[in-house]
């Protein structure tokens, strides 16, 4: 078991180093000198420039700079934002819970709707329901989510006034962040009004961010179920006289879930990518909005650190899914 | 599956047992899927609009009608046949802009797919064919690209190259290269030890001939499917970049850019936001439908 986990972890290290190298190089591809970006358009004395270069380690050879960068990253130093002068890591840590809360809500939404829809579609294969689910999920999969968000705002927020247009909490409330999850924090301090407000703010962004994963989960569940339902042991279970619900719910679903869980794990990247658009539309104070704003302000250290941190989280989640998989399924653990 | 296949267009001269032409067989399977037929028709229609945008569009996409700012579409109160789908905030005809936008989107899809397919194909062939260190290096690099959420990577590349349509296309191309590389490599690995490949190798075929003439034609089916789906990804991602202000810049009538620049008129004039979105959705959906149909027709193993 331990060996399996260690192998998986060691496989991830080159990817992580590669990402570090990629972010290191990308920032150097930005047109213009990093010093000039920092000090602005006005010229400065050559001595000052040399001093700046030295302070930032830019006079060292590139390989040394890279090693320093890796060392800094390893020790938790992801650079300093040019605009706020805060450490990139601390900004990331402050904003990440907002993105995580939204992403988890979206994943929950996608799974709770997508799983039953996919199962029913597979069981009622070829029916009107099946065609409906497949049609809707292909549409969801093709949806430009930035436009979808606007439509929902136009209909539910502007038209019906059911949900707020943007933000995470009504301005009436101020909640001191403890966990960073608004839904939990509001309950911790016993502000039920704020909890409802947070929940209302969460609904539309959740639907928007969850639309593509919902489509993927429904399609994947359906095809995994169809494959399993054709197996011999399902026929045996039926022949034994077990009820349909037992055969489908127990025998088929458990085996069909394996590829579905993988797909759900793989959606993490989609969710974090989609968060860029969703957070921009709804002014959701998370990582995605922060990255886009950093680009707008030409805050490249923030962009560099943020990208590296997001990539690290994606790698970590995929690793976790991989390991969990091995824990749950001995066949995979002993494959190598 | 032979009797009804060789019916009308197969030449009667041929012996009855002769198998149908591969294309004919493909078409037979393809047309079973009504959805992908619809997708194909829609794509052809959009392609015609894109090619003949100059002739079909009622006006120049950038001409401003100062007397008709935010004019509603014809079926609204106060709508006129002069501007069938209405006008935007500076009086430009929506329909003309959408038609020229179709041209941009089809061009984005075509260029992105060609570029990423060419690079991904080459990398995948090299990795699958030579194996060893080449394989490890190439595929590790692809893994690194895949570890970044695709839209995030595209946003970063576009931010670094600077906003603009060409840079957005480059950014989106980079993002999808790993998919083609992986598919090609997997297909090559499945083929490379087959008897026919070994036979040509023994017959003295060089690596280039083996790669391009012997192996590659047997790997194209999954690539065709992926390329079709690649159109939809390209159009969607390029529109997203446009929406974020990192893609095509105004006044270019790119659909995502059009959406972004008319956001503040969402309430007053919903049509300026509705139509670009509908255009993106319909185009992307059509390519996805077509891709699904192609997959079923080209790959019988995956057939439902």
UniProtKB/TrEMBL annotation, chain A:
<feature type="transmembrane region" description="Helical">
    <location>
        <begin position="256"/>
        <end position="282"/>
    </location>
</feature>
<dbReference type="Pfam" id="PF00528">
    <property type="entry name" value="BPD_transp_1"/>
</dbReference>
<dbReference type="GO" id="GO:0071916">
    <property type="term" value="F:dipeptide transmembrane transporter activity"/>
</dbReference>
<dbReference type="Pfam" id="PF19300">
    <property type="entry name" value="BPD_transp_1_N"/>
</dbReference>
<feature type="domain" description="ABC transmembrane type-1">
    <location>
        <begin position="96"/>
        <end position="321"/>
    </location>
</feature>
<protein>
    <submittedName>
        <fullName>ABC transporter permease subunit</fullName>
    </submittedName>
</protein>
<feature type="transmembrane region" description="Helical">
    <location>
        <begin position="302"/>
        <end position="328"/>
    </location>
</feature>
<feature type="transmembrane region" description="Helical">
    <location>
        <begin position="102"/>
        <end position="123"/>
    </location>
</feature>
<dbReference type="GO" id="GO:0005886">
    <property type="term" value="C:plasma membrane"/>
</dbReference>
<feature type="transmembrane region" description="Helical">
    <location>
        <begin position="12"/>
        <end position="30"/>
    </location>
</feature>
<keyword id="KW-1003">Cell membrane</keyword>
<comment type="similarity">
    <text>Belongs to the binding-protein-dependent transport system permease family.</text>
</comment>
<dbReference type="InterPro" id="IPR045621">
    <property type="entry name" value="BPD_transp_1_N"/>
</dbReference>
<dbReference type="InterPro" id="IPR000515">
    <property type="entry name" value="MetI-like"/>
</dbReference>
<feature type="transmembrane region" description="Helical">
    <location>
        <begin position="144"/>
        <end position="163"/>
    </location>
</feature>
<feature type="transmembrane region" description="Helical">
    <location>
        <begin position="198"/>
        <end position="218"/>
    </location>
</feature>
<keyword id="KW-0812">Transmembrane</keyword>
<dbReference type="InterPro" id="IPR035906">
    <property type="entry name" value="MetI-like_sf"/>
</dbReference>
<keyword id="KW-0472">Membrane</keyword>
<keyword id="KW-0813">Transport</keyword>
<keyword id="KW-1133">Transmembrane helix</keyword>
TrEMBL record, chain B:
<dbReference type="GO" id="GO:0005886">
    <property type="term" value="C:plasma membrane"/>
</dbReference>
<feature type="transmembrane region" description="Helical">
    <location>
        <begin position="104"/>
        <end position="131"/>
    </location>
</feature>
<comment type="similarity">
    <text>Belongs to the binding-protein-dependent transport system permease family.</text>
</comment>
<dbReference type="InterPro" id="IPR035906">
    <property type="entry name" value="MetI-like_sf"/>
</dbReference>
<dbReference type="GO" id="GO:0015031">
    <property type="term" value="P:protein transport"/>
</dbReference>
<dbReference type="Pfam" id="PF00528">
    <property type="entry name" value="BPD_transp_1"/>
</dbReference>
<dbReference type="Pfam" id="PF12911">
    <property type="entry name" value="OppC_N"/>
</dbReference>
<feature type="transmembrane region" description="Helical">
    <location>
        <begin position="151"/>
        <end position="177"/>
    </location>
</feature>
<feature type="transmembrane region" description="Helical">
    <location>
        <begin position="223"/>
        <end position="248"/>
    </location>
</feature>
<dbReference type="InterPro" id="IPR050366">
    <property type="entry name" value="BP-dependent_transpt_permease"/>
</dbReference>
<dbReference type="GO" id="GO:0071916">
    <property type="term" value="F:dipeptide transmembrane transporter activity"/>
</dbReference>
<feature type="domain" description="ABC transmembrane type-1">
    <location>
        <begin position="102"/>
        <end position="291"/>
    </location>
</feature>
<keyword id="KW-1003">Cell membrane</keyword>
<dbReference type="InterPro" id="IPR000515">
    <property type="entry name" value="MetI-like"/>
</dbReference>
<keyword id="KW-0472">Membrane</keyword>
<feature type="transmembrane region" description="Helical">
    <location>
        <begin position="269"/>
        <end position="290"/>
    </location>
</feature>
<keyword id="KW-0813">Transport</keyword>
<feature type="transmembrane region" description="Helical">
    <location>
        <begin position="37"/>
        <end position="57"/>
    </location>
</feature>
<keyword id="KW-0571">Peptide transport</keyword>
<keyword id="KW-0812">Transmembrane</keyword>
<protein>
    <submittedName>
        <fullName>ABC transporter permease subunit</fullName>
    </submittedName>
</protein>
<keyword id="KW-1133">Transmembrane helix</keyword>
């Amino acid at each position: 078991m331990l060996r399996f986990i260690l192998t998986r972890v060691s496989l991830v290290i080159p990817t992580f180093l590669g990402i570090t190298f990629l972010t290191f190089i990308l920032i150097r591809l930005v047109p213009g000198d990093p010093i000039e970006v920092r000090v602005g358009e006005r010229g400065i004395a050559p001595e000052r420039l040399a001093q700046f270069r030295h302070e930032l380690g830019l006079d060292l050879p590139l390989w040394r700079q890279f090693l320093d960068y890796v060392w800094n990253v390893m020790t938790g130093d992801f650079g300093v934002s040019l605009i706020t002068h805060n450490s990139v890591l601390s900004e990331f840590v402050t904003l990440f819970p907002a993105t995580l809360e939204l992403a988890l809500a979206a994943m929950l939404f996608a799974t709770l709707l997508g799983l039953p829809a996919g199962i029913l579609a597979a069981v009622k294969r070829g029916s009107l329901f099946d065609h409906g689910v497949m049609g809707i999920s292909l549409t969801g999969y093709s949806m430009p989510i930035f436009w979808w968000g606007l439509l929902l705002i136009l209909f539910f927020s502007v038209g019906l006034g059911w949900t707020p247009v943007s933000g995470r909490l009504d301005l009436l409330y101020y909640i001191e962040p403890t966990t960073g999850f608004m839904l939990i924090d509001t309950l911790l301090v016993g502000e039920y009004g704020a909890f409802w407000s947070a929940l209302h703010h969460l609904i539309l962004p959740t639907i928007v961010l969850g639309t593509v994963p919902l489509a993927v989960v429904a399609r994947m569940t359906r095809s995994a179920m169809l494959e399993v339902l054709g197996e011999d042991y399902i026929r045996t279970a039926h022949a034994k006289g077990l009820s349909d619900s037992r055969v489908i719910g127990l025998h088929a679903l458990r085996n069909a879930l394996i590829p579905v869980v993988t797909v759900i794990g793989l959606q993490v990247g989609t969710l974090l990518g989609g968060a860029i658009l969703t957070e921009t539309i709804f002014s959701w104070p998370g990582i995605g909005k922060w990255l886009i704003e950093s680009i707008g302000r030409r805050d490249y250290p923030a962009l560099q650190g943020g990208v590296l941190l997001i990539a690290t989280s994606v790698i970590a989640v995929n690793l976790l899914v991989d390991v969990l998989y091995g824990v749950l399924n001995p066949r995979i653990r002993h494959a190598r | 599956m032979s009797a009804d296949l060789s019916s009308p267009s197969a030449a009667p001269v041929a012996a009855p047992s002769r198998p149908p032409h591969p294309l004919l067989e493909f078409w037979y399977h393809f047309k079973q899927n009504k959805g992908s037929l619809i997708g194909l028709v829609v794509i052809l229609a959009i392609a015609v609009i894109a090619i003949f945008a100059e002739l079909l569009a009622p006006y120049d996409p950038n001409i401003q009608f100062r007397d008709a700012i935010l004019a509603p579409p014809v079926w609204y109160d106060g709508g006129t046949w002069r501007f069938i789908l209405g006008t935007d905030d500076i009086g430009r005809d929506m329909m003309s802009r959408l038609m020229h936008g179709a041209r941009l989107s089809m061009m984005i899809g075509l260029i992105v797919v060609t570029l990423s397919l060419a690079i991904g194909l080459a990398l995948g062939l090299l990795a699958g064919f030579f194996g060893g260190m080449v394989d490890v290096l190439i595929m590790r690099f692809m893994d690194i690209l895949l570890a970044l959420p695709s839209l995030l990577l595209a946003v970063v590349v576009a931010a670094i190259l600077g906003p603009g349509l060409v840079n957005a296309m480059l950014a989106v191309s980079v993002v999808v290269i790993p998919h083609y590389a992986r598919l090609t490599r997997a297909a090559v690995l499945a083929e490379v030890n087959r008897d026919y490949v070994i036979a040509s190798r023994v017959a003295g075929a060089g690596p280039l001939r083996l790669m391009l003439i012997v192996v590659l034609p047997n790997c194209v089916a999954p690539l065709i499917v992926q390329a079709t789906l690649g159109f939809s990804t390209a159009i969607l991602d390029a529109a997203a970049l446009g929406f974020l202000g990192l893609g095509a810049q105004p006044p270019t009538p790119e659909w995502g850019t059009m959406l972004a620049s008319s956001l503040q008129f969402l309430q007053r004039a919903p049509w300026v936001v509705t139509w670009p979105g509908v255009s993106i959705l319909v185009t992307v959906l059509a390519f996805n439908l077509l891709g699904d149909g192609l997959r079923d027709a080209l790959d019988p193993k995956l057939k439902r």
